[in-house]
Amino acid sequence: MSITRKPFGTLKNGQAVTEYTLSNQSGASVGILDLGGIITHIRVPDRLGQLTDVALGFDDASAYIAAPGYLGALIGRVGNRIGNASFTLNGEEYVLEKNDGENNLHGGLEGFNLRMWQASPIEMDSADALLLSLTSPDGDQGFPGSLDVEVTYTFNDANALGIHYYATTDKPTLCNLTNHAYFNLDGHDGSIEDLELQIFADVITEVDDKLIPTGRLLASHNLPYSFAQPTRLGDVLALTHSNPTLKSAGGVDINYCMGRDRETKICAELYSPKTGRVMTVETDQPGVQVYTGQGLNIRGKQGAFYGPFGGICLETQHYPDAIHYPQFHSVVLRPQDIYDTVTVYHFGAR
């Protein structure tokens, strides 16, 4: 295993951004920035051993700052939506930025995806790691408490990309970290419509037309977007204009629920019949947000055009807007607690 680094542009303030590349013995690799903890590329083999980049991204740091969509980035303090961009904690109301209509999305306008993280590369025999650390001060983006965060990326010879999230706070706050990588197992410059997705979840969080949970959990097995069996994404996306839930989101933008336990489990599997690539998602989180990239409309790396359905996000998480629903898994982090969770993206071929 080896870790290399190279310049990846500069920010407006002149600060240099560095890309760290974790490579294994087969030549597969993952690129990560100290800006936003952004995953810039994931090069993994197909059934013939050919390496292809399966993550959407850009060629320069400035593009990540300017572009919408959170491509490849770490999300915090709170991934997903908080209804009405406000919440009450210990009797005190906190008002957040409204950056998604009337709601708060992915921590606010200057979330963790736009921060410079301290990076420490760690080389090992069978895996490499990149430790990223960040302190979010009290009041940052409207959230209470100083939050110390460490995120460790690992990549090994089995082509497993691990993300370990760890955080502590000095006063009660909210914390729900995730990663917003866009995957396309056919290559980063195409469509996901021919990929097959299976989700190992029995229920979803029902949402209103603004994609805010109602508090109800719906059995998913009778829904056309249940993905209970391997399902071609294009067949589901073809229902976007006729199905009310899909129409509101412009595609799939749904949280799937895997149960109340904290045991590590496989929550999703993505497969490319064309290339044979398989990605399984393993996590100890209770939910996974499936987003089919309908908001994409931008020029990416190597001149590729990323249009709607150009990539799919599988964001492991606590449920959206959980602070407003006591029946959901709590996103409150207190000083006596530790936020500690792991998600692994396993890449293979068949």
How would you sum up this structure, described in words?
With 350 residues, the protein is mainly β. The protein has helices spanning 61-66, 233-237, 244-249; strands spanning 2-10, 16-23, 29-33, 39-45, 51-53, 74-75, 81-82, 86-89, 92-95, 104-105, 118-123, 127-136, 147-156, 160-169, 173-174, 178-179, 196-199, 203-207, 213-219, 231-232, 253-257, 265-271, 277-283, 287-291, 298-299, 305-306, 313-317, 332-333, 339-349. The chain has one domain (2-190, 292-349): Distorted Sandwich (Beta-galactosidase, Chain A, domain 5), CATH 2.70.98. The strands form eight sheets. It has a nine-stranded antiparallel sheet with strand order 11-12-13-14-29-23-22-17-20. The mean pLDDT is 96.
